[in-house]
């Protein structure tokens, strides 16, 4: 069995702990400030790989400490990509393996592929205007979500007449080269993402709705199994492209 350390004992951490034994993992350490258990050589001594789901203000320091201890890891926390270059150096210096991503759901990564193919097709047809919408629970700390940003990048890459995404409230008429991607935070919504194409005649919508966090947890465990004996920095999309047999698009 792969020996796993869980960094962060919120809802995702608890779910990872529950699912790990079913997927060939033994949880050997759980790190969380509320448990008065910190990252250290002792606390991670038995771990083959770590999975980190914490908060944007804690994630970089967690990555630094874990990598300095020579442990491979999976990072599901978002909101730190401005430090990606520094993380790349840590991974190289410490000769570890790390997988990061904005969304570890296998279903969502299939959705990325569907949106990628559809936007290429819709780009050939005039009179359709693209838009996006995402909904999450009221406790989510970032807006837009990392997943929304990925979807926006996919749209921009494949749509000739759109050059920027607007995630904020607009107090003006939207420009022709912009597309609007709205965010809603309410209740206990695990995550819903929609990409729509509207014309005077009809509307076409692609939507992914998460029922719970299980898909994210299973994807993170799959990534941990994959990275356990690898070195280097990988985006989860690289892993996903490998398992479904398609070429990864940078």
Report on this model:
Strands 2-1-3-4-5-11 form a six-stranded parallel beta sheet, sandwiched between helices. Strands 7-8-6-9-10 form a five-stranded mixed beta sheet. It folds into two domains: 2-104 and 213-244, Rossmann fold (3-Layer(aba) Sandwich), CATH 3.40.50.720; 106-209, 2-Layer Sandwich (Dihydrodipicolinate Reductase, domain 2). It has helices at 11-19, 56-68, 84-94, 106-122, 146-158, 214-227, 236-244; strands spanning 2-7, 25-31, 49-52, 72-75, 97-100, 129-136, 164-166, 178-185, 192-198, 203-209, 232-235. With 250 residues, it is α/β, with parallel strands linked by helices. The protein contains seven helices and eleven strands.
Whole-number count of domains:
2
Shape: elongated
Strand order of the largest sheet: 2-1-3-4-5-11
Instruction: Name the CATH architecture of the largest domain.
Output: 3-Layer(aba) Sandwich
Annotation field: number of helices = 7
Relevant CATH superfamily of the largest domain: NAD(P)-binding Rossmann-like Domain
State mean pLDDT (0 to 100 scale).
94
Derived from helix and strand composition plus strand pairing, the structural class reads alpha/beta
CATH topology of the largest domain: Rossmann fold
Query: Runs with pLDDT <50, length 5+?
Result: none
* Biggest pleated sheet: 6 strands, parallel
Query: How large, in whole angstroms, is the Cα Rg?
Result: 19 Å
CATH class of the largest domain: Alpha Beta
Number of extended strands: 11
Fraction of residues in β-strands: 15-25%
């Amino acid at each position: 069995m792969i020996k796993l350390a869980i960094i962060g004992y919120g809802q995702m951490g608890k779910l990872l702990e529950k699912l790990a034994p079913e997927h060939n993992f033994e949880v050997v350490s759980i790190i969380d400030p509320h448990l008065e258990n910190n990252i250290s050589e002792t606390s991670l001594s038995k771990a083959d790989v770590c999975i980190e789901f914490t908060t944007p203000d804690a994630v970089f320091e967690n990555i630094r400490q874990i990598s300095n201890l020579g442990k491979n890891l999976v990072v599901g926390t978002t909101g730190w990509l401005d430090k990606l270059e520094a993380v790349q150096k840590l991974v190289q210096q410490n000769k570890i393996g790390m997988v990061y991503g904005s969304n570890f759901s296998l279903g969502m990564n299939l959705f990325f592929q569907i949106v990628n193919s559809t936007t290429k097709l819709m780009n050939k047809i005039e009179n359709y205007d693209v838009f996006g919408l995402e909904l999450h629970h009221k406790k989510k700390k970032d807006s837009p979500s990392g997943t929304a940003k990925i979807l926006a990048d996919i749209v921009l890459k494949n749509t000739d007449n759109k050059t920027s995404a607007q995630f904020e409230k607009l107090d003006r008429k939207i420009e022709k080269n912009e597309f609007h991607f709205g965010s809603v935070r309410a209740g206990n919504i695990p995550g819903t993402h929609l990409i729509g194409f509207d014309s005077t005649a009809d509307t076409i919508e692609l939507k992914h709705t998460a029922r719970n966090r299980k898909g994210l947890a299973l994807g993170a465990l799959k990534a941990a199994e994959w990275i356990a004996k690898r070195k280097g920095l990988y985006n989860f999309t690289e892993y996903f492209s490998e398992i479904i047999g398609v070429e990864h698009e940078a």
